[in-house]
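Please fill in the sequence for the structure shown.

STRUCTURE ENCODING:
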């Protein structure tokens, strides 16, 4: 299993690792034995390359097997990434980016999870292709690409929001300055998943309040009122959560709109969705 500059999997290694992943998913399998075998394979320096290849490219395999490879890869990267050969790091990164636009939602979501873990470990400064790919995907007319990018970004914004609000060598502006206007545009998406992901991402920056959000506050508030009666309860819950945070840390921005906000909170106190109603109660407790 020796890795080279132009890494390619060996057929035997590919089959054996896929076979173990298939066995692991069987309800009658001996998981302890499979775990020992996977631990044996993990001693090979390019084992995680195989997992990345199976996750990203093994389209003849079931989505469950590919997803299992991705989740095992994610767990391995937490402990192994920093000590990997640079060529292996670059190979894994390059395989993940096309998966953001995969046709299957589970593959897109798993790709976003792995990318968020890599960003937590290694930052974004050493992965300029990631930021370029995310911007291109957000601007794509293919909803799968947009959703894949938003899924990854929402996880990064939740886990390490400060990284996108940092100066990065070689970039003329902070990444959040590029992403936030695109998030606000997605408030108007016809797809509930994109409205939810974009709103949750912006909400992560209320506490940090980067310059771009401060400058875009009127657009953000307009977007919140636009989404206030969204048909998706998870979006309405996020609107309430935004108002709760704003009244707590930035009350001045809500002052001109306080009457409308209070009327809305009273309305959603009676929301048929219990979680939305509970979030509205949080506002009253401030």
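FILLED IN BY: designer on duty
SEQUENCE:
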């Amino acid at each position: 299993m020796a890795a080279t500059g132009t890494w390619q999997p060996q057929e035997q290694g590919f089959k054996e690792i896929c076979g173990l992943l298939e066995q692991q998913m069987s309800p009658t399998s001996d998981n302890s034995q499979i775990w020992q075998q996977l631990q044996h394979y993990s001693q090979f320096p390019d084992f995680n390359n195989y997992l990345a290849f199976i996750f990203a490219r093994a389209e003849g395999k079931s989505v469950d097997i590919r997803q299992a490879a991705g989740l095992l890869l994610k767990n391995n990267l937490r402990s192994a990434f920093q000590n990997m050969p640079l060529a292996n790091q670059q190979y894994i990164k390059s395989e993940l980016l096309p998966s953001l636009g995969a046709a299957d939602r589970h593959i897109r979501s798993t790709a976003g999870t792995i990318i968020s873990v890599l960003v937590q470990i290694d930052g974004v400064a050493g992965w300029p292709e990631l930021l370029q790919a995310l911007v291109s995907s957000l601007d794509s007319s293919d909803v799968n690409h947009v959703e894949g990018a938003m899924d990854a970004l929402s996880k990064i914004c939740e886990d390490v929001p400060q990284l996108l609000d940092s100066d990065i060598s070689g970039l003329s502006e902070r990444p959040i300055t590029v992403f936030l206007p695109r998030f606000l545009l997605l408030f108007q998406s016809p797809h509930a998943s994109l409205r939810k992901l974009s709103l949750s991402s912006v909400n992560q920056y209320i506490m940090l309040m980067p310059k771009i959000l401060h400058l875009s506050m009127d657009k953000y508030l307009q977007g919140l009122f636009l989404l206030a009666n969204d048909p998706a309860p998870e979006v309405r819950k996020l609107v309430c959560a935004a108002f709760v945070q704003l009244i707590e840390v930035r009350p001045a921005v809500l002052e001109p709109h306080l009457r409308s906000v209070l009327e809305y909170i009273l309305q959603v106190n009676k929301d048929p969705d219990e979680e939305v109603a509970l979030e509205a109660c949080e506002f009253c407790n401030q």
